[in-house]
Design goal:
Blueprint (H helix, E strand, L loop, with lengths): L1 E3 L2 E3 L16 H19 L11 H7 L4 H13 L3 E3 L5 E3 L9 E4 L11 H16 L5 E2 L2 H4 L2 H7 L5 E5 L5 H8 L5 E5 L11 E6 L1 H10 L7 E7 L2 H16 L6 E6 L4 H13 L9 E5 L2 H11 L7 E5 L17 E4 L2 H18 L6 E5 L1 E3 L9 H4 L2
Parallel strand pairs: 5-6, 5-7, 7-8, 8-9, 9-15, 10-11, 10-12, 12-13, 13-14
Antiparallel strand pairs: 1-2, 3-4, 14-16
Helix pairs in contact: 1-3, 2-3, 4-12, 10-11
Length: 387
Amino acid sequence: MLEMNGIICYIPEKQEPTDNFIIMPEKKQKRTELARKLQQDIYSKELRAGDSIGSIRRLAMRYHTTPLTISRMLNDLVDTGILCRDKKGSCRVLTDPPTKPHLGYAGVPLLPSSSMECLMQDAVRKCFNELDRLGVPPEIIGYHELSDPEIVRTRLKNINGLIFHDSFLDEKTSLTLSQLNIPIVRVGQALPKYSKFSSSEVVQFFDPALQEFARYCDLKSYRRIVIVYSLYWNSIRLAKTLKHFLHDLNADDRLEMMAMPKNASAAAELYAFCHFRKLDGIDWNDTLLISTSGYFSRGICRALADRGELPDILSIDNLDGYEKSTFFEEPYLTAIDRCMGRIFRDAARLLYDQVKSGDERKVIIKVPAKLIIRKSIRHINPEWKER
């Protein structure tokens, strides 16, 4: 594991070469396979140190082999430090097995509540697919369960690791989460509003995509730059990130902030459509509009496209990559893809590894967002065109 520029990278473990192998006698190979299966059974049953593994006769019946083979197999496991013998000569587990992950997930549900939430549903599905691949399908925890300390003590009694999404983070759930003594991984945006507890995080990292956009787009050619955001705390945080980015480029004198009310995804598109439809008499030429939501972006396009007045638009969220738009024949919006699928998948792997290894450190993984260049930006940096 390396840390470079604030990004924690996981390096695959070095694999042993497979070209050379030892050919062992058939009986010894069978005994080795049985020993490996018994070791897996010990771990799957979560037998603790000192627990008996049963009599040789019963083990021979369970694994369909002879007592002599079982006896030799047990000797092998004693030699490797998996088992030990007590005063009577019976075999017992020597040390506690690795912790078996029993994970929970709290956040956007796996099944879509509307066709408009395809981006998040795809990300959650990738998380569940990864956990299924690891053999630890999670229990789904509802918001009402996570916000009630009495319920959460019962509901999470057998869970030793939790993934939760920003959408479930508020004062109530923050207080409950702070009382959990298990590894927790938060997915979403950096800089959470509520900080009563600390957890590992897999979060979005916008800097690389914004810097690439600054090289691609001729920002000096705009007389107005408008940031459209909602009054949700995560959208406000993102708007501040964009504002700092433009401040560093000396664009403060041309910057405008346009706040939208809190709305669900489909309602957000409708509200943006109605709001921009009412904005008559505005010259959108030489205007860059940065939308913190793909739904706002689509509503703006619907409102202005038939008037031939579309400003240059940078959309946070690559919805064009999930749903074909009805008003453009091909993907149109230049977008910053949050890479939510990778964020959720990395969170699943991180939590699994932390629970299994007993690692209690707080790890922060920043997943770089990706700039997707399309036709919605017309003011292109001349130096980029020359590439």
